[in-house]
Specification:
It is a single chain. Helices cover about 40% and strands about 15% of the residues. The protein is of the alpha/beta class. It has a seven-stranded parallel beta sheet, covered by helices on one side. A two-stranded antiparallel sheet has the order 1-2. Strands 6-7 form a two-stranded antiparallel ribbon. A hairpin with a 2-residue loop joins strand 1 and strand 2 (about 10). The protein starts with a strand and ends with a helix.
Length: about 280
């Protein structure tokens, strides 16, 4: 497995997104554990989660608990950087709400620490800006958690370039990651990717294959991905991830999965070399 860096830690060039294993339509626990273990067996050392990755109101942190169980039952579990997030909530009716208040973020971090069973969270990211709370206050809470040793590294998610710069300043230059939506269907985070490349901050595309319901349609929707996939004898999904890796050394995709076979297909992207001409064709989609 090829590595990339988040802060001062080497991680697998492709991580595993855990959301699909905990929200609506999730598989049974046995399949989820098998999926996570397959990723670890293949060399994955980055898993992305959040306290909001759950389905019902009474099971906040379902995905964190699941990941903690999977890591504890695997001999390579201790090698994994777990990236979790706070500031997004799910009331249990299918909706998503926000609470970026410092009080909530600090309480959420404490709860995540307990669920993950660790003394310090490897990477903690502010999940999404809350229009009711000044951004500086939310990021300031993450800075406090970093200073207190509750988290080892700090990141932000769903941020524009101005907020990336602001967060990095508030954190005293210690911002290590930006997790934004980015895929062939969602290209508006290109400026954020470029800024992260400039600053040397890891850029973690979420839903890199277009989301849970659309990942399988990538090849039929975007012909160049299908054409290049056929030329290499691989899936369009693998081409998509290889394209992202080729865009910058700071990119670390975190495709979600709930089946071992899709994990393994995604990880094959680290060995797929696209020519500059192929990357240019995909950039033009």
């Amino acid at each position: 497995m090829h590595n990339r860096r988040i802060g001062d830690i080497d991680v697998s060039a492709i991580g595993l997104g855990g959301m699909a294993m905990s929200i609506e339509g999730r598989p049974d626990e046995a399949r989820s554990l098998a999926t996570i273990h397959a990723a670890l067996d293949a060399g994955v050392t980055l898993i992305d989660t959040a306290d909001a990755y759950h389905r019902d109101a009474h099971e906040v942190g379902h995905n964190e608990t699941l990941i903690a169980k999977a890591l504890a039952s695997h001999d390579r579990g201790g090698d994994v950087l777990v990236a979790t997030k706070g500031g997004h909530l799910r009331p249990g009716d299918g909706s998503w709400t926000l609470d970026g208040s410092p009080r909530h973020l600090k309480e959420a971090c404490e709860a995540s620490l307990r669920r993950l069973g660790v003394e310090a969270i490897g990477l903690y990211q502010f999940h999404r800006p809350d229009p009711k709370v000044p951004y500086a206050e939310s990021v300031g809470a993450v800075r406090d958690l970093l200073d207190e040793g509750k988290i080892r590294m700090a990141g932000i998610s769903n941020a524009d370039p101005d907020r990336i710069r602001e967060a990095n300043e508030i954190l005293g230059g210690r911002l290590v990651s930006v997790q934004n939506q980015f895929s062939p269907a969602f290209r508006s985070s290109e400026p954020e990717l470029d800024l992260c490349d400039e600053l040397g901050i890891a850029f973690l595309p979420w839903s890199p294959l277009g989301g849970i319901s659309r990942a399988g349609e990538l090849g039929s929707t975007y012909a160049p991905f299908a054409r290049i996939a056929e030329a290499h004898g691989v899936s369009p999904q693998r081409v998509c991830l290889a394209w992202m890796l080729a865009k910058s050394p700071v990119v670390v995709p975190i495709p979600g999965s709930s089946r071992p076979e899709t994990v393994l297909d995604s990880l094959g992207a680290t060995d797929l070399e696209l020519s500059p001409e192929e990357v240019a064709q995909l950039d033009a989609v």
